[in-house]
Amino acid sequence: MRVVSGIQPTGNLHLGNYLGAIRNWVRMQDAAQQGTQCVFFIVDLHAISMPHDPAELRSGVRDMAAALVACGIDPERSILFNQAQVPAHAELQWLLNGTARMGWLNRMTQFKDKSGKNREGASVALFTYPILQAADVLLYQATHVPVGDDQKQHLELARDIAQKFNNDFCPEDAPIFTLPDPIMPPQAARIMSLRDGSAKMSKSDPSDMSRINLTDDADTIMKKVKKAKTDPEPLPETAKELEGRAEALNLVTIYSALAGKSADEVLKDFAGEGFGKFKPALGELMVETLSPISARYVELREDDEALDAILAKGALKARSLAAPTLSAAYQALGLSRG
Ligand code: AMP
Ligand code: TRP
């Protein structure tokens, strides 16, 4: 089994990034049996597909590296690096460009969403983004790729590319690429804004009160939770009855994700209570989980050299893991490298 996944180098990380993405990686790593290799990378090459600021990209990669380690990714057990340090990703993408079809890419909904009305002005990289993502996973013979729901289509494309390449260029009994399976974590929480239960918690929300940052201290967390938008009703007995109460549902969802209980179990303890009782309990639970993470994050983030060394070490391992598959792909295509 080989677990492979990538994450965007976003800075200003918040509770949504932790509960929705990073924590799932940590869980996969910690559950991995002997012989299962986890390969996790920060997708800086993908990041240039959208308008970006180079200085922000550089610090975003370090922010994400620090956050991943602070949250529990162990660079000794998992291979952790940023894509740009492993040229094999870009190389394999080019090779796969020969296999991927225009029609396949034309169906990708993320390109449509991200390019919006300005399709002509979108970068070519945004269009070919899913081919780089396919290279990311095929390069390491990924068997399992933990991703959110929105990435399922890209994973299906990676399978199509792998299958066509194997068909077109490999003997039937010796395919080069493994077909990867997406794994959607069963309860990957989607965390909403503390100010608006219909908007995702996001680093781009102008109100800092809308999110819990990984760098917030205990007082700030308690204050934000106490000011979170709610309604005057008491908490019901079951999660089903929270329908139509988006803000209340969000707080219960966060509680249940942090406590490792179902929403119904959480409500058993709080049914009939108002938010005056629920919010302090939620705030304390958040502080309990996030304090050690943010202390570690701040410490790691102060030392660029140490972070860069972690990524460089991971990249070294990734390069050797990737080499045989990349060579085989060149060979299969009839490309001579001397
Ligand atoms: P982004 O910078 O928004 O691309 O987020 C990086 C990762 O965190 C992605 O895998 C997202 O799915 C995840 N993420 C971001 N915001 C949230 C949220 N509010 N709830 C759950 N997951 C999130
Ligand atoms: N496109 C993914 C996202 O936006 C990030 C990503 C890039 C990725 N390469 C990957 C995810 C390979 C899984 C595997 O979240």
Describe the structure in your own words.
Helix 3 packs across helix 12 (275-301) and helix 7 (124-138) crosses helix 8. Helix 1 links the parallel strand 1 (2-7) and strand 2. The protein has helices at residues 15-31, 44-47, 54-71, 88-97, 102-106, 109-115, 124-138, 152-169, 218-227, 246-259, 263-270, 275-301, 304-332, and strands at 2-7, 37-42, 79-82, 144-146, 181-183. The model has no long low-confidence stretch (mean pLDDT 96). The two termini are 33 Å apart. It has 13 helices and five strands. With 338 residues, the chain is mostly helical. The longest helix is centred in the last third of the chain and has 29 residues, at 304-332. The chain is elongated, with a radius of gyration of 22 Å. The strands form two sheets. A three-stranded parallel beta sheet has the order 1-2-3, with helices on both faces. Helix content is 54%, strand content 7%. The protein has two domains: 2-189 and 303-332, HUPs (Rossmann fold), CATH 3.40.50.620; 208-300, Orthogonal Bundle (Tyrosyl-Transfer RNA Synthetase), CATH 1.10.240.10. Bound molecules: adenosine monophosphate and tryptophan (TRP). Residues 5-6, 8, 43, 46, 133, 136-137, 145, 147, 151 line the site of tryptophan. Adenosine monophosphate binds next to helix 1.
